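re: that complex we talked abt at group meeting.

here r the seqs, copy pasted straight from the sheet so there may be weird spacing, ignore it
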Amino acid sequence: MKTSRISGFYNMTVEERRKLLHEMGFLTAEDLNTISNRSSLDLETADHMIENVVGTYELPLGLGLNFLINDKDYVIPMVIEEASVVASASHIARIVRESGGFRTEATERVMIGQIQVVGCPDFLEAKEAILRQKQTLIEAANNAYPSIVTRGGGAIDLDVRILNEEAGSRFTQMLMVHIYINTCDAMGANIINTMVESLAPVVEDLTNGKVYLRILSNYADRCLARATCIISPQLLRTGDFSGEEVRDGVILAYELAASDPYRAVTHNKGIMNGIDPVVIATGNDWRAVEAGAHAYAARNGTYSSMTVWSKDEEGNLVGELELPMSIGTVGGATRVHPLAKASLEILGVESAKELAQVIVAVGLAQNLGALKALATDGIQKGHMALHSRSVAIAAGATGEMIDIVAEELIKQKQIRVGKAKELVEEYKK
Ligand SMILES: CC(C)(COP(=O)([O-])OP(=O)([O-])OC[C@H]1O[C@@H](n2cnc3c(N)ncnc32)[C@H](O)[C@@H]1OP(=O)([O-])[O-])[C@@H](O)C(=O)NCCC(=O)NCCSC(=O)C[C@@](C)(O)CC(=O)[O-]
Ligand SMILES: NC(=O)C1=CN([C@@H]2O[C@H](COP(=O)(O)OP(=O)(O)OC[C@H]3O[C@@H](n4cnc5c(N)ncnc54)[C@H](OP(=O)(O)O)[C@@H]3O)[C@@H](O)[C@H]2O)C=CC1
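got the structure back, here u go
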């Protein structure tokens, strides 16, 4: 049985880590080769992915460890430039696994396509006309992309709203048609956009209006993933802080984020610290996930915390995170970028639904990592200690000098570039 509980992984060299992962069965020989390549994204592939290519841009790929989700062990590929994020996720995952691990679930992968119609002579009649032809429109959408139906998905429902109907609205009155489409394991942008574009002429005929926009909505509120964890307070004890103090500090931090948008934005940034790196590692569209997540955090009218932290009757800390998760395990760059392919294999996920659940579990862990630090020692101790190596590099340290300068910065409690430059100069003498 593969376990993601690999103690002391961070003390090994990069080579030792790779070898161990291969021996443990997390990395196939092919993935090992891909990961070991100095530039795994070759220029020719890159030149076909986007426009005006002049090179490729590398970021670190780290592994979140200790994750137990629905009784399955996961090693989590995370691509990120910021120090301490991977350590923090692994730290919380270690605590949560001792409490039984994360529990996750996901809705069916239903995405939304939108069609904008303006200039209808009678908007109510236009809405009725579309609703009367609902089944025909759904069938027409499916005929435009039959392969997704063969895969078990496709258009399943439709509804219509009239926008700006109130007298005196400063905006033009318009009809918004929503098509609900199960995109299976794809994020589905191309499936959805093909379907809504194909429906435009028939929608114009039915409404006597003019269709403008035909595009998916990134507010994927029917494609949700949810993670929860229940943690015994004794596992939260840190330094001089009792587990109960840490638990209560985390709950107070949540209550602050739920009451104040200024704090909610930073709180949620900490959640996206966990989510984006997995979305990026797997070749998914992180702008789509970011946009949907922040919109969902404002679904009750005020921008608020994405997570909820509370205490149960036994005094355990209970965490919950539910977000739209428009990602795929096929399509986009997921099978084009060699490292995205390797990341999906390291994860061992079998479907987009499973990947979505893993991603929200990492987001929940990341939020607790930050809140636990903030409610106890403060963020500087753990974060800046790990960031010190980047500070040393920014100051010109190379090779063995990096760790020496970083350690000195921590010792002197002055983790700043100016100080690091002084140390680099001294070292060179
Ligand atoms: C950094 C820790 C985890 C140290 O915390 P610690 O208690 O010193 O850790 P530890 O030495 O007891 O180790 C516990 C586990 O953490 C992991 N771990 C520990 N060290 C490493 C390492 N070097 N490399 C990889 N993994 C590491 C590792 O899994 C280890 O278990 P082990 O393998 O030893 O059995 C802690 O201080 C922490 O979580 N701090 C918070 C860091 C954080 O949130 N960073 C995000 C950047 S700040 C930000 O952008 C967001 C924010 C904060 O503004 C959001 C908000 O305001 O809400
Ligand atoms: N607003 C936004 O977010 C927008 C995003 N995008 C971009 O769109 C891309 C994602 O589009 P997407 O349509 O997902 O990608 P692709 O069109 O690249 O891939 C999806 C296709 O993969 C095939 N496929 C193979 N196996 C499966 C399976 N199990 N389940 C579902 N489909 C399968 C299907 O095609 P077949 O059945 O023919 O084999 C499906 O149409 C991203 O790069 C994103 O950046 C584009 C426009 C707007």
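couple things i noticed - The chain has three domains: 9-107+223-377, 110-217, 382-428. Residues 7-8, 10, 65-66, 82, 84-88, 90-91, 94, 266-267, 269-270, 273, 369-371, 373-374, 379, 382-383, 386 surround 3-hydroxy-3-methylglutaryl-coenzyme A (ligand 1) (CB under 6 Å).
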